[in-house]
Design brief:
The complex is a heterodimer of chains A (116) and B (288). By secondary structure, chain A is of the alpha/beta class. Chain A contains 6 helices and 5 strands; from the N terminus they run βαβαββααβαα. In chain B, strand 5 and strand 6 form a beta hairpin. Classes of the chains: A alpha/beta (116), B alpha/beta (288).
Chain lengths: 116, 288
């Protein structure tokens, strides 16, 4: 199977991966490929700054019950990811899985926090 | 004519925030008046607070007011600091050279001007020639933190402008940088109260928003940025302060304190104090 290669620096025309708008744009690009059952490789080569706001919009949103976790794990690949950025990606994915598996419960738990 | 009269020393602590906010709130509904900002009695002023004043001046000028400043010999140092960081230069004062390279200049950005903010970060923040040296790890973590705050403000604040300013204290061995990002948009209390459909006090709202994974966005994940900053500040032994409405939150030395200010701020202030002399690594497997 052909793997679609997305060089983030070129796709964003920027070496900062920070905005939610850019994250949304990437989300739709990835979704297009996944919807047609193609594998996608995100290449972080040359990216200087990555923050979770960008990763939530681009990668976290894929876990909104659009595909099975296993499908995403098998079809979304990463290249040239530093250890620190890998840590952020994992954090975003773990949080998204928890959140989208139980959106109502997630909010109820936080509501309980406010009410002691 | 109305006067905003500051007193003595204005530092980055609850009292300092309170003084700026309460004094400006006395005049913030004036229209088409002359407003004098009087620094005559101020012998010390933390320059990062220029970002807070910038938000108030944005509102006062929208209401057709004319702003003037007054300084005396006693407050000459304050005036010079605000000229060096460009705050007063944008209001007609001559620029002064920042000989010690300690100012992160005051800037005001349209909230949609992501490219402008990026340029600021590259040229005026980490790119200042002669800026105190720091490890690459620390610089990266600092830029990520500033961006998380900026994106948070533009996402949740729904405001027209973001104001930013910073100052490094090079005589202090830890070389702390104080950096302030301020918006006049929807504050944390409003967002959290709306999210839960009931009134939640400002300090509880900030405490909730500071928890990892908490977000007021609907059917979207988020809330990781502030949590990561929290971990970074803890390791760096820095300080994180948040003011939203009348809530003041501070994380310092491993302790969280909150208090209610006597006057509400019309937006959100995030102030980050980072020790630039810190040489520890931030990307080991310590969860940072």
């Amino acid at each position: 199977m052909e793997v679609k290669h997305i060089l983030l620096r070129e796709f964003l025309n920027n070496d900062f991966a920070v905005s939610t708008e850019d994250g949304d744009k990437l989300f739709h690009e990835i979704k297009g490929y996944l919807d047609s059952n193609q594998k996608v490789s995100l290449d972080f080569d040359g990216i200087v700054v990555v923050i979770t706001a960008f990763l939530n919009a681009s990668i976290g949103s894929l876990y909104n019950n659009l595909y099975s976790d296993q499908f995403i794990d098998e079809h979304l690949l990463y290249e040239n990811v530093s250890d620190s950025n890998r840590k952020y990606i994992n954090l975003v994915i773990d949080n998204a899985k928890k959140y989208f598996k139980n959106v109502d419960g997630f909010d109820k738990n936080t509501d309980d926090l406010l009410n002691g | 004519m109305a006067k905003v009269c500051f007193s003595d020393r204005i530092k980055t602590n609850a009292e300092g925030f309170q003084q700026i906010i309460s004094k400006f709130n006395e005049v913030c509904d004036y229209k088409e008046s002359i407003i004098e900002i009087d620094f005559s009695d101020v012998s010390f002023f933390d320059a990062n607070f220029a970002a807070i004043i910038g938000v108030y001046l944005e509102r006062l000028e929208e209401l057709g007011n004319i702003i003037i400043f007054s300084f005396t010999k006693n407050s000459e140092k304050v005036q010079h600091t605000l000229q060096r960081n460009q705050f007063l230069v944008q209001r007609g004062y001559p620029s002064l050279v920042d000989n010690f390279n300690t100012c992160v200049p005051y800037r005001k950005f349209r909230s949609v001007d992501a490219a402008g903010f990026q340029q600021y970060i590259i040229t005026d923040f980490i790119g200042i020639e002669g800026f105190p040296k720091m490890t690459a790890d620390l610089g990266k973590k600092m830029v990520e933190s500033v961006y998380e705050i900026y994106v948070n403000a533009t996402t949740h604040g729904q405001c027209n402008y973001i104001h930013a300013c910073g100052q490094v204290f090079i005589r202090n061995p830890e070389k702390p940088l104080q950096f302030c990002i301020v918006d006049s948009g929807k504050n944390i209390k409003e967002n959290v109260s709306e999210h839960f459909g009931k009134d939640i006090c400002s300090t509880d709202s900030i405490l909730w928003a500071m928890e990892l994974g908490h977000t007021t966005k609907v059917n979207e994940t988020g809330g990781l940025g502030l949590g990561l900053i929290f971990e970074f500040v803890k390791l760096n032994r820095g300080i994180l302060q948040v003011v939203s409405h009348d809530g003041f939150y501070q994380f310092k030395g491993g302790n969280v304190t909150t208090t209610r200010l006597n006057s509400p701020f019309p937006g959100t202030i995030v102030n980050l104090t980072i020790n630039l002399a810190d040489t520890k690594s931030y990307y080991l497997s310590n969860g940072s």
